[in-house]
Design brief:
The chain is an alpha/beta fold and 582 residues long. The protein has 3 domains: 92 residues, Beta Polymerase, domain 2 (2-Layer Sandwich), CATH 3.30.460; 76 residues, Beta Polymerase, domain 3 (2-Layer Sandwich), CATH 3.30.210; 240 residues, TIM Barrel. 42% of the residues lie in helices and 12% in strands. It has 23 helices and 17 strands. The strands form 5 sheets. It has a 5-stranded mixed beta sheet with strand order 2-4-7-6-5, sandwiched between helices. Helix 1 packs antiparallel against helix 2, helix 7 packs across helix 8 and helix 19 packs parallel to helix 20. It is globular, with a radius of gyration of 26 Å.
């Protein structure tokens, strides 16, 4: 049981009550309760379990009782009863982009839409377009959203699978019969989305470790179970394949199962040129070849060197120039998490964050960061409680006071006063130049009017990138992985504008975004554009998203010198033109 589970349950109750047409104040009470649970600084789960929630603002007596029941038993009868009033397929509709409770309620009550399949049928027949508040354009967009959902069916975000995968690896490594264990496949290559996960273990007792693996609590379905391989489903639906090999086979197997397919084809070609065959278990002398017997490979690096290549990091193995670079000794020294000294683009309770300014700063200090940029939303993002001019100036003053306190306490840390300023439809910014000049830095982002033509959106972003007060562009393409396609934009033209004006491009490492896409970073760096790895954290624990940013930065061939937040505090103050705090 986690605070997220508690909050999600309250939020789902609010949605169900909205579908039923219940009192708006009652609905709001559940939403407020969900926000309170997420924002509460203490161990809210333990307090709920022990029935000690009295006095917490936002949690009335009824919510306290429900949270106690949920935390202590793992279920909530009221929630289950509400769900039972609706057909199970109705809940699929909440996964369709652009459908909120009001529209779903109208579809359900007017057309008896109780599943995605039924919704598609009625959109195609024209029935949905006849409903008040819908129309042909809305019906067309719903069909596009359904197609997008189906296209991504069976895919999982990297950030959603990381925790269970790492937990399974840790458990495997602690098993007495395990010699080595690693993840492979697209997960190891840090693809932003994965279809399944491959795990590889070296052991002298394969059957024993395979039997143990399928019997663990994480298994909800056994797809296949053999002496050296097992396939299972987790509760999320994610398929995990475990292969057991000998220690002598491990290096070749890890290269093979890591992929990519194209990378492996190139490696097999090099092996053939040397007189060998390379498969998932070994490198062997090709029939008819007079090549000497191949050695046993201790690790992947040994195999790559035998093939005349420098070791290629898993993130680069996409056959996008890494083989040639490894042959020439020209691979980049990729950035590492330890290289980061701070970060930008984080939110507080002042807008739509869950923690206070001080709590965010303390969490950053605990992570060993030297600076933390706060960039709450600007006024046009009303849905995110964006700050107006008065509130932003108040926050700037609060940041200055907190920075003075850090200095007096001898803490070498600085909060940077910024704003995630909305790029308006015409490319202008949400605040005037005078206020922007009072900030330490500015993140400019698009949050609305995402259906502009490619030329209009490109012009919009170029105008923002060209603004002298804009430090960096945030989540440049606006994508939400598995939820929303990127908006139409000419990325090379925006990169060119950033290069011309010295504007940084963010690698937003929220696992739902991972934007700018890794495929564009080599081009951006070639044009002299710098990257900022930003977690877009709305809670203290989301500062950990930096690890995903590093994985995707490495996949984009980024080095330490390509990323501005590898500068230490003195370096970032100089880069931003700030005076040290005295």
């Amino acid at each position: 049981m986690t605070r997220e589970h508690l909050a999600d349950t309250l939020e789902e109750i609010a949605l169900l009550l909205e579908l039923k047409g219940e009192n708006p104040f009652k609905i709001r009470a559940y939403r407020t309760g969900a926000e309170t649970v997420l924002q509460f600084p203490g161990d809210i789960v333990s307090l709920a379990r022990d029935g000690k929630l009295e006095g917490i603002k936002g949690l009335g007596e009824a919510l306290q009782q429900k949270l106690h029941e949920l935390a202590s038993t793992g279920a909530l009868a009221f929630h289950e009863k509400l769900k039972a009033e609706f057909p199970p397929g109705l809940f699929e509709l909440f996964d369709i982009q652009g459908l909120g409770p009001k529209k779903i309620k109208a579809l359900y009550e007017s057309l008896a839409v109780d599943s995605v399949a039924r919704l598609r049928e009625l959109c195609e027949s024209g029935a949905v377009a006849t409903l008040p508040g819908f129309g042909e354009k809305t019906a067309s967009k719903i069909l596009e959203a359904i197609s997008f959902r189906e296209k991504n069916s069976g895919s999982f975000r990297l950030g959603d699978v990381a925790a269970p995968v790492e937990a399974m690896l840790e458990a495997l490594r602690e098993h007495p019969d395990c010699l080595r264990a690693e993840a492979a496949g697209s997960y190891r290559r840090s693809k932003e989305t994965v279809h399944d996960v491959d795990l590889l273990v070296s052991t002298g007792k394969p059957e024993k470790i395979i039997d143990w693996f399928v019997a663990q609590p994480w298994t909800v379905r056994v797809i296949a179970h053999g002496p050296t391989k097992a396939s299972i489903n987790l509760s999320s639906g994610l398929q995990v394949d475990l292969r057991a090999v000998s220690n002598a086979e491990f290096a070749c197997a890890l290269v093979y199962f890591t992929g990519s397919k194209e990378h492996n084809v190139a490696l097999r070609g090099r092996a053939a040129d040397l007189g060998y065959t390379l498969n998932e278990y070994r490198l062997a002398v090709r029939e008819g070849s007079d090549a000497p017997e191949a050695p046993l490979f201790e690790d992947e690096g040994h195999l790559y060197r035998f093939l005349g290549l420098d070791y290629i990091a898993p993130e680069l193995r996409e056959n996008s120039g890494e083989i040639e670079a490894a042959e020439e000794g020209d691979l980049p020294r990729l950035i590492e998490l330890a290289n980061l000294r701070g970060t930008f683009h984080n939110h507080t309770v002042a807008s739509d964050g869950r923690n206070t300014l001080e709590e965010m700063a303390e969490a950053a200090i605990e992570l060993g960061l030297q600076y933390l940029g706060i960039a709450d939303h600007s006024k046009s993002s009303f849905q995110a409680n964006g700050l107006d001019e008065k509130r932003l100036r108040s926050q700037i003053s609060e940041i200055r006071a907190l920075n003075l306190r850090f200095r007096e306490e001898g803490t070498r840390f600085r909060i940077l006063a910024g704003s995630e300023v909305d790029i308006l439809k015409d490319g202008s910014l949400d605040f005037d130049d005078e206020l922007l000049g009072e900030l330490d830095y500015v993140v400019a982002s698009v949050h609305n009017a995402m259906t502009l033509s490619e030329s209009a959106m490109t012009e919009r972003l170029i105008r923002a990138a060209s603004h002298p007060k804009v430090t960096m562009l945030g989540h440049l393409t606006g994508r939400l992985l598995l939820e929303r396609e990127p908006y139409a934009v000419d990325i090379p033209s925006v990169i060119e504008a950033c290069a011309e004006h010295g504007t940084v491009i963010e690698l937003n490492c929220n696992p739902w975004r991972l934007d700018l896409d890794w495929r564009w970073w080599k081009h951006a760096v070639s044009r002299g554009v710098k990257c900022a790895i930003n977690p877009d954290a709305h809670r203290v624990d989301q500062l950990d998203y930096l690890s995903f940013g590093i994985r995707l930065a490495r996949k984009g061939w980024l080095r330490r010198e390509d990323v501005v937040n590898t500068l230490d505090l003195a370096g970032i103050e100089e880069w931003l033109g700030l005076f040290p705090i005295e």
